[in-house]
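User: Please fill in residues for this 279-position structure.
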C-alpha cells in the first residue's frame, strides 16, 4: 500500500484525475491524503467533492479554509459569496446536502502514529505538540458538528492572534481554526500574522515573523507534518515538513508525493483558472 499526499485541489477536477492516473492510484492498495481546500476558485468543485467522497476509506481529508467557507455558506446564517468564489454549481446540486454533510464530518488534523505523520491544511504554532494539536482539532470538530450555524457564524476574524490556554469559547475556536487552516508565519512566541500571504520574509528579533515550521524548537518537531495552503511557497521538503500547495488554481501544478518512499514530487500542470489577487 502507498500513501499519496496531494496538495490543494481547489475545484480542479480534471487535474486531479490526471494526477491519479499518473500516480497509478489503485483503490485496492493505495490511500490518498488530501491537505484540504478541495473546493473553490477552480471550475469543478462539485465534481471534486463527488470524486473524493466516492473514494470512501481510500481518502483521508482535512478541512481547509475554503472548505470551511463552503460550510459557512451552507450552514451559517451571515455569510455571502466572496469575489472569486466558484461554488454556485455545488450549492445548487441535487446531492449537495449529502456532500456537505460528509464534508462537515472531516477533521482539521489527521495523525498516523505508525509512520509519525501529521497532516493539517496550513500549520501549527510552535507551542503546540502533536498531541495538543490533535486534541485542539478534535475540540473544534466537536463544536462544529454540535452546532454548525453558531460555530460558523463566529468563526471569521483575525483575533486573538496569540495562543493562550486561557482562551475560551469562540475566541479559542477561532484561534485554533486560524492556525490549522490559515497560518503561514508567526513569531517564536506564537503570535500569528494571518495577512501575510507572499513568499517568506525572514527577520530577526523576538517579534520577527518566520515560516511556522522554521521556528527553532517548535513542539511538533517529532512528527513529519504534511500541509498545503501556501502557494507562493511552493513545494517544500525540509525542516521536517512537506508543503504541497504548488498553486494549481493559479496556473501552477497539482502535486503529490508518496509518503512511503523517498520524497519526489509528482505534478501535473494546471490551466490556471484565476489570477493572483482575484478575490
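Assistant: Residues filled in for all 279 positions:
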Amino acid at each position: 500500500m502507498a500513501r499519496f499526499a496531494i496538495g490543494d485541489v481547489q475545484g480542479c477536477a480534471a487535474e486531479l484525475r490526471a494526477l491519479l492516473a499518473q500516480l497509478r492510484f489503485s483503490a485496492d492498495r493505495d490511500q490518498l491524503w488530501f491537505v484540504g481546500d478541495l473546493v473553490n476558485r477552480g471550475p469543478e468543485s462539485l465534481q471534486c467533492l463527488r470524486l473524493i467522497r466516492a473514494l470512501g476509506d481510500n481518502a483521508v481529508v482535512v478541512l481547509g479554509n475554503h472548505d470551511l467557507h463552503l460550510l459557512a455558506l451552507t450552514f451559517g446564517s451571515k455569510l455571502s459569496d466572496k469575489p472569486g468564489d466558484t461554488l454556485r454549481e455545488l450549492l445548487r446540486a441535487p446531492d449537495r446536502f449529502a456532500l456537505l454533510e460528509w464534508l462537515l464530518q472531516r477533521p482539521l488534523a489527521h495523525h498516523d502514529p505508525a509512520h509519525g505523520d501529521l497532516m493539517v491544511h496550513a500549520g501549527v504554532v510552535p507551542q503546540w505538540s502533536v498531541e495538543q494539536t490533535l486534541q485542539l482539532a478534535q475540540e473544534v470538530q466537536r463544536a462544529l458538528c454540535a452546532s454548525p450555524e453558531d460555530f460558523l457564524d463566529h468563526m471569521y476574524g483575525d483575533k486573538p492572534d496569540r495562543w493562550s490556554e486561557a482562551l475560551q469559547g469562540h475566541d479559542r475556536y477561532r484561534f485554533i481554526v486560524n492556525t490549522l487552516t490559515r497560518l503561514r508565519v508567526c513569531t517564536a512566541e506564537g503570535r500569528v500574522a494571518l495577512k501575510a500571504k507572499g513568499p517568506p520574509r525572514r527577520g530577526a528579533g523576538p517579534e520577527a515573523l518566520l515560516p511556522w515550521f522554521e521556528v527553532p524548537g517548535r513542539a511538533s518537531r517529532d512528527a513529519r507534518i504534511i500541509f498545503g495552503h501556501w502557494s507562493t511557497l511552493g513545494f517544500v521538503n525540509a525542516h521536517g515538513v512537506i508543503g504541497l500547495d504548488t498553486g494549481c488554481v493559479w496556473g501552477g501544478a497539482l502535486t503529490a508525493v508518496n509518503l512511503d518512499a523517498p520524497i519526489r514530487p509528482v505534478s501535473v500542470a494546471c490551466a490556471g483558472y484565476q489570477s493572483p489577487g482575484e478575490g
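For context: The two ends are 40 Å apart (CA to CA).
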